């Protein structure tokens, strides 16, 4: 049973050798065990996994604890049930949810897993558009941003797992949509494939405030925040009266010991802007509503989903580290088996 274990808690940017690819004995379901044995098909790389590579579990209601040294990492994945001692799961079921970074996983409490019922779409989608990132984009955009037709929407980390969906949802709502991303290739993807009205490479802009002013001469109504830091400071100066900022994440702050201070917060007051954080886990009860909404759009080709898939557990440490270097183009996944 090949696995990826945590060797040490990373300092700053995680490094590949903070993890190790190793093997454990073959797993089988013990007699009388009430859990299940999974074969993992796809593993998902998500920025929140950095927060679990610490000695103290971060607050925020994650349904799991931080990783322990010499134990497998964990995260979201798509898996097949190989054996089950749990009444709700049977051999052959396909599921998505939290699993370990191993070929096979023994899961004592499988209750949080969600069964996959629609298999006419790629299975990998259940770690992306049909999984946690999809629910994040759906809840964050529709619940927190209250979009109306014609509004101006800005999204950072726009080509990633969540951002690319928020942009497409905003277009479906009749908004004007601009995204920022960290390379020319990503900017082209946003404009050519994902239907954004405009996009820019934030690494090439000397003055982010001016870049946003150029893209939004009338200002921003909705900002979907994925990165924090300098981008947020520039956005605050470009917000319109009664704008909304959904704070999904701030990846620029995940590898620093102490968060950067953010300037320009007084803009919230003078412009009556609402800024609100959220956790997708609080919205999972809307999952079937989300599927009813998104599946027809996928089947009709009205929503695209860009994935960046590497193969095998040996590629897993580098794929995870790559999220914090912007190496991933679209949703970062590790394919283990069909
Ligand atoms: P992505 O697929 O977008 O991958 C991360 C991307 O972030 C990278 O590709 C890179 O893109 C960008 N990035 C990395 N480091 C920096 C930096 N220092 N400054 C600016 N950009 C950076 O990830 P997700 O779509 O999965 O996640 C996006 C955000 O959403 C994250 O903040 C994540 O924590 C958050 N999130 C929050 C959830 C919630 O419930 N609130 C749930 C899921 C995700 P680029 O090349 O464009 O720089």
From TrEMBL:
Cited CDD domains: double_bond_reductase_like
Boundaries of every Enoyl reductase (ER) domain copy: 15-334
Keywords, comma-separated and alphabetical: Oxidoreductase
Pfam family, one: ADH_N_2
Protein name (record): 2-alkenal reductase (NADP(+)-dependent)
Species of provenance: Ziziphus jujuba (Chinese jujube)
């Amino acid at each position: 049973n090949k696995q990826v274990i945590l060797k040490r808690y990373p300092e700053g940017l995680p490094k590949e050798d903070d993890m190790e690819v190793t093997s454990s004995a073959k797993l089988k379901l013990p007699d009388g065990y009430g859990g299940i044995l999974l074969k993992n098909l796809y593993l998902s790389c998500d920025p929140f996994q950095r927060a679990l590579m610490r000695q103290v579990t971060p607050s925020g209601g994650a349904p799991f604890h931080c990783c322990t040294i010499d134990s497998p990492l964990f995260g979201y994945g798509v898996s097949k049930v190989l054996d089950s001692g749990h009444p709700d799961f049977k051999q052959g079921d396909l599921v998505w949810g939290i699993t370990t970074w191993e070929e096979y996983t023994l899961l004592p409490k499988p209750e949080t897993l969600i069964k996959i019922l629609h298999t006419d779409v790629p299975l990998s989608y259940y770690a992306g558009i049909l999984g946690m990132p999809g629910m994040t984009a759906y809840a964050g955009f529709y619940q927190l941003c209250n979009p109306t037709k014609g509004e101006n929407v800005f999204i950072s980390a726009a080509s990633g797992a969540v951002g690319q969906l928020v942009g497409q949802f905003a277009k479906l709502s009749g908004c004007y949509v601009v995204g920022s991303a960290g390379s020319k290739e990503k900017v082209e993807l946003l404009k050519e494939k994902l239907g954004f009205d405009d996009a820019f490479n934030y690494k090439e802009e000397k003055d982010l405030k001016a870049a946003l002013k150029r893209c939004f001469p009338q200002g921003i109504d909705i900002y979907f925040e994925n990165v924090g830091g300098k981008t947020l400071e520039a956005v605050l100066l470009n917000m319109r009266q009664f704008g909304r900022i959904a704070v999904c994440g701030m990846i620029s702050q995940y590898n620093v010991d102490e968060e950067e201070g953010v300037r320009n917060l007084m803009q919230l007051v003078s412009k009556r802007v609402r800024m609100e954080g959220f956790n997708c886990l609080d919205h999972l009860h809307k999952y079937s509503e989300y599927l009813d909404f998104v599946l027809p759009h996928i089947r009709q080709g009205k929503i695209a989903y860009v994935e960046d898939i590497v193969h095998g557990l040996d590629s897993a440490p580098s794929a995870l580290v790559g999220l914090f270097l912007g190496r991933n183009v679209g949703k970062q996944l590790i394919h283990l088996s069909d």
